[in-house]
Design a protein that fits this description.
Helix content is 77%, strand content 0%. By secondary structure, it is mostly helical. The protein has one domain.
Length: 123
């Protein structure tokens, strides 16, 4: 895999991870809610006025464009498993930025993912 291809995949994965973190930050600001017919429009309006949610959706849109560029260069069977890097990035960022728990089993899972990514990139 070329450096350009790997960079495109990694950029797409990181944009996706940033999108997830922004959506979580936006929902933290909103608080817990339930969609019902009665509150559909008020909740939709609240969602549409949260800048982290809008920024997260924008990151998703850009990540799709980057992913398409990556898939034009790399077989999907090689590119798709690299999306698992997003689990690693999100777990570490959620721990560092959002105060979420990073348990021993999660760290073990991250290690397994990293070994798998290494094997895929190396092939």
């Amino acid at each position: 895999m070329s450096l350009v291809s790997f960079s495109l995949i990694l950029s797409g994965v990181l944009l996706n991870a940033v999108a997830q973190l922004l959506l979580k930050a936006g929902t933290n600001q909103l608080g817990q809610f339930a969609f019902t017919w009665e509150n559909l429009w008020p909740i939709a309006l609240k969602i549409c006025t949260q800048w982290p949610i809008l920024a997260g959706l924008f990151c998703y849109a850009v990540s799709v464009v980057v992913w398409i560029l990556a898939l034009s260069r790399v077989p999907v069977s090689q590119a798709y498993p690299l999306l698992s890097i997003g689990y690693v990035v999100n777990a570490l960022a959620a721990w560092a930025l959002l105060g979420e728990t990073l348990t021993g089993s999660r760290i073990s899972g991250i290690a397994v993912i990293l070994v798998g990514v290494y094997l895929i990139v190396r092939s």
